Amino acid sequence: MTCDKHTGAGAGKEVEFFMAKKKLGKQTVALETPPTILAEAGIVGTKEGQGPLARWFDEILTDDMYGETSWEKAESKLQKSAIQKALDKAKLTTGDIDYIFAGDLLNQCAGSHYALKDINIPFWGLYGACSTMAESIAISALTLDGGYADYTVAVTSSHFCSAEKQYRYPLEYGGQRPPTAQWTVTGSGSCVLASCGGGPYVTHVTTGKIVDMGIKDANNMGAAMAPAAVDTIAAHFADTGRKPSDYDLIVSGDLASIGTQITKELLAAQGYDLSANYNDCGNMIFYTEAQDVHAGGSGCGCSGVVFCSYILERLRRGELNRVLFVGTGALMNPLSLLQNESIPCIAHAITVQRSLA
User: Fold this and answer.
1) How high does pLDDT run on average in the chain?
2) Per-residue pLDDT tens for 24-49?
3) What are the pLDDT digits (tens) for 66-86?
4) Which domain holds residue 270?
């Protein structure tokens, strides 16, 4: 095996370094053998089941406790059920899966840990907040393209009640929510990816950088996350040489109404017009005014269920051919909020195509 070497300046002298052959620009990887999303599943709570995407979900709960004794146990059960539904669709068992990549909003990703502790699959725990669906699919795809696995699972979840209790106030407190606040989705999305198959394919991964613009208001996460989305989307276009019109849909999650507007304005200032084909999962999952969710939806489960139900199904039907899915996350925790720290944010993007033609 031979390696291509290049020469550059480092530490004041000429040094040799190896070229990453699949790398485009600074942040994007073009996968050499694009993995297939073999099957997917999305399970949502009762409120989400009353929204405009209801018919696309695999299961709608009739009880957000899901038969469990705590909100946290209900969230873990959501993940287990979403994984099993995706595996059943793929006609695989847990024994076929090489790695599972999972995360959620709870402290130390407890929702995922308790969901997966009895599944007996090699596990990578991830925390990307609401970007976790895009992050888990991205790392799954890189693992498969690298030849390290044949099958992987990417999964995430959130639950309105567990998130409210952890980040804000217990539901019994009855605190008032400002207009900028978003509604954490109760739901779980899961994908089974394979090293080969008939598509949809993950063709590109653009890894985001942490962006912190000094916003401290946890009830205005759309404004906090929008600059991270802008940074990653602009990097993707710069790295790939593509433009917005090369995509049937560019979808972020979860910026909701306020973050969506900021993102469009900031990208327009850089010469990228997203007016024709851009949307956000936080805007899509609820009837915003009728369901009184203020700015819109949020939470790991929001982009998870929208992508793993509505978007992938439209790709399979041929209604979409190429999608840029941009998961956005606010990387604060309860303690950092109490200490009045600003909110670091991240966005990861993946390109998903119906075919490779």
Assistant:
1) 94
2) 999 999 999 999 999 999 999 999 99
3) 999 999 999 999 999 999 999
4) 200-353
The contacts of residue 33 (CB under 8 Å, 6+ apart) are 144, 145, 195, 196
Could you say which of 177, 193, 209 is where a domain stops? 193
How confident is the model over 119-168, as pLDDT tens digits?
999 999 999 999 999 999 999 999 999 999 999 999 999 999 998 888 87
**Per-residue model confidence (pLDDT) at position 108:** 94
Q: What phi and psi values does residue 159 have, to the nearest 5 degrees?
A: -145, 130
Can you tell me which residue has the tokens 């699919």?
137
Instruction: Tell me, yes or no, whether 165 and 121 share the same domain.
Output: yes
| Among the listed residues 216, 217, 210, the one whose alpha carbon sits nearest the alpha carbon of residue 231 | 210
Distance in angstroms (rounded) separating the CA atoms of residues 102 and 153 = 8
Inside any domain, residue 1:
no
Domain boundary among 145, 160, 193: 193
Pairing of strands 36-44, 187-194: antiparallel
What's the CATH code of the domain at 309? 3.40.47.40
Residue 127 lies in a domain: yes
Of the candidates 243, 249, 136, the residue with the CA atom closest to the CA atom of residue 188: 136
What CA–CA distances, in Å, run from 29 to 138, 146, 233? 10, 12, 14
Domain assignment present for residue 17? The answer is no
pLDDT tens-digit series, residues 304-338: 999 999 999 999 999 999 999 999 999 999 899 88
Q: Is residue 273 domain-resident?
A: yes
Average confidence (pLDDT) over 280-297: 97
Cβ pair 158, 105 in contact under 8 A:
yes
Q: How many CB atoms lie within 10 A of CB 149?
A: 18
Look up the pTM and report it.
0.94
Q: 27, 9 in Cβ contact below 8 A? A: no
Dist. CA 217–CA 314, nearest whole Å: 35
Query: Which amino acid makes up residue 160?
Result: F
3-state SS, residue 60: strand
Place of tokens 């999962």: 281
Number of structural domains in the chain: 2
